[in-house]
Structures are given as structure tokens and as C-alpha cells.
Amino acid sequence: MTGKVHRATIYLGAIALISACGCRQEMYDQPKYRPLQKSDFFADQRASRPLVEGTVARGTLASAPVPAAGAPSAEELRTTMPVPLTRELLARGRQRFEIFCTPCHDRTGGGGGMVVRRGYRPPPSLHIERLRDAPIGHFYDVITRGLGAMPDYAQQIPPEDRWAIAAYVRALQLSQRAALADVPEPERRSLKERK
Q1: For residue 138, what are the contacts with CB-CB under 8 A and spacing of at least 6?
Q2: Positive/negative CA dihedral, 87, 93, 96, 98
Q3: CA distance linking residue 179 with residue 188, whole number of Å
Q4: What angle do CA 42, 115, 104 make, to 5 degrees?
Q5: Which structural domain range is residue 124 located in?
Q6: Number of C-beta neighbours around residue 89 at 10 A
Q7: What SS3 class is residue 38?
Q8: Cα 2 to the center of its chain, rounded Å
Q9: DSSP-H helix ranges across the chain
Q10: What is the CATH number of the domain that holds 95?
């Protein structure tokens, strides 16, 4: 009798072992897209989907010190900065512009950045009349949502830095069309002495 019990225990153990191996679920074997993988399912062929409009990452909305929108309503863009324009804000805008924008727009905003020289579609110059006349909220909105060949930077650039970049773009635009009369008197004298 002992031999039969021993054999039955071995058989039951073997069946349990085979069942456990056969029922093992490997989630990494299921069909799925990997980040930045091509997808024929979506029209833009990107497997990584953009966030649904209005999605806010956990913990970021309450900490945002400035409005997280380029427009007070869906129909109109902001025409004024929602934060005070300071030297520090422009310095931050310049730093962020040089990190995120110069690869395409170059340091002056002319549109001849390094990736453009390597074959990427050139952006319009930030100094054309249409963009000089655009409200400041337009630049914030384009950074947030993208436009044309420009992708959105909502995930990479927080709202306060988007406003800083928009302010710096305005400063760049002014710098390209400044007249001597626009320069404060003390600096004007030093410019005349250099000639």
C-alpha cells in the first residue's frame, strides 16, 4: 500500500508541476507597442499617442504659478503676459529657447538651426510680419500643441517656462528691428563712442 501511495504522490506532484508551468502568464509576451514604435493602425503611424487635451500630470496643476493656457478662452489667444516681465524671466526664456528651440529656429530665431541644415523642414522665421503681429499667446500655444512640422513640447516644457520662452521670442523680435532711438540714453552714448 505504501508503494501505491508513494506512486500516486509522485503522479500528483508531476501533474501539479506540469499544470503550474502550463498556466504561467508571461505579460511581456502579449502583443503591444513599444515606445516610439511605428504603428500602421493610426493615421500618423505613431504608436505613442499624444495625451488627451486637458490632461494634467498628477501634482503639476496646483504647483503651476502661471496660467497653464495660452488663451483665456478657446476662441482667443492671450495678448499680454500673465506673469510680470522681469530680467530673470527673460534669462530663463533665453536658456530654455537655446535648449529646446535653437536646433530648428537657430539662436536668432531665423529658422536656420542645425537640424534644418541637416535636411529637416525649416520653420518660418520668427521675424516675419505674421509672427511679429501674432499675440504672445500664439507662441505659448504653439509650444504647447505644436504646429505644422513642429511637435508639441507640453511634456518637456512646463507652463512657466513656455511663457518665459514666449517673452524671449518677443525680445528676439524686437532686437532684430530695433532703432537707435529705442536704446536708452546711457547705452546710446556708449554705442556712439564705439563707432
Answers
A1: 70, 77, 131
A2: negative
A3: 11
A4: 85
A5: 87-177
A6: 18
A7: strand
A8: 72
A9: 2-22, 87-100, 102-105, 114-117, 129-132, 136-145, 159-176, 185-194
A10: 1.10.760.10
How many domains, the chain? 1
Instruction: Output DSSP code: residue 124.
Output: P
Residue 28: strand, helix, or coil? helix
- Tell me the residue type at 148: G
Helices (H) and strands (E) in the chain, counts: 8, 0
Residue with cell string 520662452: 165
CB 126 within 8 A of CB 111: yes
Does residue 46 form part of some domain? no
Q: 3-12, 15-24, 102-111: lowest mean pLDDT where? A: 15-24
Q: Is 105 exposed, middle or buried (0-12, 13-18, 19+ CB in 10 A)?
A: buried
Residue 56 has, within 13 A of its CA and on its CB side, a CA count of: 12
Does 6 map to a domain? no
pTM of the predicted model over 0.90: no
What three-state secondary structure class fits 24? coil
Q: Is 109 domain-assigned?
A: yes
Q: pLDDT tens digits, residue range 77-131?
A: 888 888 899 999 999 999 999 999 999 999 999 999 999 999 999 999 999 999 9
**Is there a domain that residue 192 lies in?**
no
Q: Which of 2-11, 129-138, 159-168 has the lowest mean pLDDT?
A: 2-11
